[in-house]
Amino acid sequence: MVGPLLTITRSADFERVLAQPPRSRSTHFAVHHVPARPSLATGRAPRPATDELSTGDARGCPPLVDEAPATGWWLGTVVPKRHAKRAVTRGLLKRQIRAAMGEAASGLAPGLWVVRLKAPFDRQQFPSAASRPLRAAARDELIALLQRAALPAPARAGR
Questions:
Q1: Which of 17, 24, 22 is CA-nearest to residue 155?
Q2: What DSSP line would sit under 76-109, residue for residue?
Q3: Distance CA 145, CA 30 (A)
C-alpha cells in the first residue's frame, strides 16, 4: 500500500521538475520527475505551537509541507488551455492523471512528479468534451506512460 499522493502547489517546485528532461513520453503526455521533496516556504517564520486552536480539533487536517514525510509521491498536473480548450476536458484529464498516478505510485520512485499534456486529443475522434472513449483513451495512455517511467534509467535509453 502506498501512502497518500500529495499535490505540488508551489510554482518553484513545478519549475524545478519541468527543468528536467521528460522521464517518459507518449503521444499526448510527458512525465517529469525529481527525486526530492517540495521546497519549503521562504520568508515565513514558524509560529510557536500552542495547546489552544481557534478551529478546535485539527486532527483531520493534512500535514504542512515542512511536516510532510521525508519520502513520498507529490504530483503536479499541467493541462494547458491551448491543448484542451474546454474546462470539462481539462478536468477529465486531470482526474485521469491523478487516478493513474495513484495506481502506479507504488512502482515509481518517490519524489516530485509532473504529468504534462503536450498535445491535444483529436476533436474529430473525440467530439464530446468528457466522453467515455476520451476517458478510456487518456487512462490507457497514462498507465502505459507511467509504466515506462517506472523502468530504470538504462532500460529506457532506447525511448
A1: 24
A2: EEE--TTT--SHHHHHHHHHHHHHHHHHHGGGSP
A3: 8
DSSP state of 159: -
C-alpha R_g of the chain? 18
- Give the pLDDT of residue 20: 95
Query: Do residues 37 and 68 make contact, with C-beta atoms less than 8 angstroms apart?
Result: yes
Q: Which of 91, 119, 112, 84 is nearest to 23 (CA)?
A: 112
Do 74 and 34 meet the contact criterion of CB atoms below 8 Å apart?
A: no
- The predicted model scores a pTM of 0.77
Share of the chain above pLDDT 70, in %: 75
Residues 102-121 pLDDT 10s: 999 889 999 999 999 999 99
Q: Is the Cα dihedral 136, 14, 30, 80 positive or negative?
A: positive
Q: Indicate if the pLDDT at residue 84 is higher than 80.
A: yes
Note whether 21 and 153 are within 8 A (CB): no
